[in-house]
Amino acid sequence: MGMTNILISGASVAGPALAWWLRRYGFRPTVVERAPALRAGGYKVDIRGAALDVVDRMGLLEQVRRHDTGMRLARFVDAEGAQLATMDAQLFGGREGDDAEIMRGDLARILAAATDDVEYVFGDSIAAMTPIAEGVEVAFERGSRRTFDLVIGADGLHSNVRRLAFGPESSHLRHLGHHIAIFTVPAEFGVPRTELMHPAPGRTVGVYRTAGAQDAKTLFLFPSPQGGPDHRDVAGQKALLAEAFAGVGWQVPRLLDAMWDAPDFYLDSMSQVRMDRWSAGRIGLVGDAAYGASPASGQGTSLSLVGAYVLATSLATAGGDPAAGFADYERRMRPFVEANQQLAERNLKGMVLRSAAQIRFQVLMLRLMPHLPGRERMIRRVTEPIRKAATAITLPDAAAIAS
């Protein structure tokens, strides 16, 4: 049973990372991406634990370090912009040691450049998949048809491959009760290398500028509405966000004014993907498409990088048997996935505070922390669960396969 020609749907992080490892192992991957070009937008993302090892094994760690966000400080402000408390940016992000933080768009460009020998098809998507003897016949939206040995969905939370092969996404998404919005705003809104956070009851707004950035990014978190627009209805999503944050102080009215011209507006539910299996025949899933942990986990990018490595390695060691490769991939990844998904609900409780009393208590604790005798112990309570989850896997040995 051959599995040389592999179609990957999605060119964000998991897709190009998987393509890199597949090429190293002698496969011929093709990446198809619905967008007309590489997606440049996105928020800053963390790379921790086992994911750092994967990036290092790819020889890309130095490039990732060069694109570090350089964030130094997190400042909490009230409705008038007055400072309430500050904390170190590393602690605010739950990072320690060698953990890296990079803009998602920068990471996507690094991975794409590292796979310049891989065929990328932009501006197209999979319309249908038909299992045939020893492969999958794929019909593309632009009309062409091709046959592949395997198809891998690396196409995110709203995965097209998952929908076609495993049924409606409603049976696989677990909503966490909140929505998130992210978009670019003019640099004047931010302070260089500083994360500005404004907590309001039930809603949180943040703005930051990374080192050397020519613009700023803003983030909104709020309880999920009943119903709401489709995830591709951008105008409806912007109207929803404007309504959800009407009356909130600080820079929010001006940020919402800037929203209408934002080139990279993103709004979606904070959801996780929960599935009993990540493959069906010769069709598999990786990254957010298979086990999205939600932005609240802080581990979506790391899961994608590790998942891509483990999937490619499992297929390479399967002796041409895709069922064996997919089974090994699931066996190795599922405990790691579960450990990282569990972070989301814990983190979300501190990201959106329900009442003014909770906000006052959080601000008080942040002010007192530098002066408390048990400060180091308190910091470990924040970082230890993240560190344990980020390292909760033993990576297979790529060197033995490549040789």
From TrEMBL:
Signal peptide annotation: none
Gene Ontology MF term list: FAD binding
Annotated FAD-binding domain residues: 4-341
Record InterPro entries: FAD-bd (IPR002938), FAD/NAD-bd_sf (IPR036188), FAD_aromatic-hydroxylase (IPR051704)
Pfam family, one: FAD_binding_3
Protein name stated in the entry: 2-polyprenyl-6-methoxyphenol hydroxylase
